[in-house]
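Entry 14. Ran structure prediction on the chain below.
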Amino acid sequence: MTVQVDWETGVGGTKGFPGFADWPKYLAWKEKVNAQKRQHSKLVPVPDYTGQKVCGISVHFLPCDDIQVTTSCYPYGSPEYPIKTPLHLPEPLSCPR
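Output, structure tokens:
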């Protein structure tokens, strides 16, 4: 079984926000923010959970626009949780294409 995950990346702050009073400045800021957004979609396998208790699906967003999914009922960090990837990974200087 697989699942398709769609997500968006980009700048998520208000740095440089000029306010709404100066509409042309606001539109220029909005255009700059939107230009940095990227749409992603990935089809990933769901690990076989036959015979296991299922509590939902967890998606891990990784560097280089990669993802992993699991159906584990265990919380992240417990020895039984199947994904061992650390939560905060630095973005590498270059990503494989």
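The chain has one helix and four strands. Will compare against last week's run tomorrow.
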